[in-house]
Write a structure and sequence with these properties.
By secondary structure, the chain is of the alpha/beta class. The protein has helices spanning about 15-30, 40-55, 55-65, 75-80, 195-205, and strands at about 85, 95, 110, 120, 130-135, 155-160, 180, 205-210, 245, 250-255, 260-265, 275-280, 280-285, 290-300, 305-310, 320-325, 330-340, 350-355, 360-365, 370-375. Helices cover about 15% and strands about 25% of the residues. β7 (about 180), α5 and β8 (about 205-210) form a beta-alpha-beta unit. α1 runs antiparallel to α3.
Length: about 375
Amino acid sequence: MDGKKSKQLKPGMSPEARITKLRLAYFWIHPPKRAITGGGHDGRKRRRNKEKSNPIEKTLVDHLGFYIIDLSTREFIHRHGSGSRILNSNKIAELKNASFEGLSFLERLDLRNNLISTIEPGAFWGLSTLKRLDLANNRIGCLNADIFKGLPALVRLNLSGNLFSSLPQGTFANLFALKSLEFQTDYLLCDCNLLWMLRWIKAKNITVRETKCSYPKSLQGQPIPAVRAEQLTCDSPLELPSFYMTPSHRQVVFEGDSLPFQCMASYIDQDMQVLWYQDGRIVETDESQGIFVQKNMIHNCSLIASALTISNIQAGSTGNWGCRVQSRRGNNSRTVDIVVLESSAQYCPMDRVINNKGDFREIFLMRSHVELPVTGMRE
């Protein structure tokens, strides 16, 4: 700083004190009314580049995380002349309690296209004049009424492009001024769990924008306001917005190898569970056989998962293996065949093949030809 010694931020300093010192440092180097030379297109380009690479902005984020903004409030108002905050495409992963404390002047907050998967209750506390909130295209799976506390003036909310397949009853109970809502996702399941939403929309006269059912197939593409209450059922068959097992192709392995599997499905009912089977028989953890099962892990309120590891594979592992998702409305399964070769089996050098079905190695045995997915083979 032109030869002057800068003051260091002390480790035990409170967040408020850190904000004050960093803001003073920012304005000492960049007074609000300081003009950037040049005009026209080139001048605007230089201003944009300066804003992107500003070291003080980076310092603010590095020292205090997302608790504070990357520009001071005063400088932001000077630049934009309004109560808007644009934080889209910033790789923000979580919003902690009181993340926006002290920004009560904001009327619009844009958090699109980040990596947000966690929003703590009270994250928006203090935004008493906020009218528009955009959380589209993040990784949000868990939502509840406590998340939206402190937003009495919010009129428009966009939750599209996230991971949830449903919304718990009462999610928007604290948004008394809400008039417009978007919540389109690739996993949106229009079933009995959304009945409350249909009734709430009509009772509060909420405008639902650009939101259509993704599942079940019978309602796919249907705008939410056009869906009738009698169409929102939780009857069988079980239709899951997301369900996959990896690896998903035939596995050819040698005796003594280890083979891991993972099964994940949309978490749509609290009674859901994932079970593993071999040739129709249920598989449980059996250390003596080298079989280990991790059951029913819930991820981000949106997925249920289970893992199976078959270690020290023997000839008896040859067969059809699969995971089954069970719930009160039915079952759904994914399976894969495992072929176990003797460790003494002779084979030619492997050729690698990459196509639209995956990444494989081809093994030529003495009397046969098989394809091995990379995950289940020996080098």
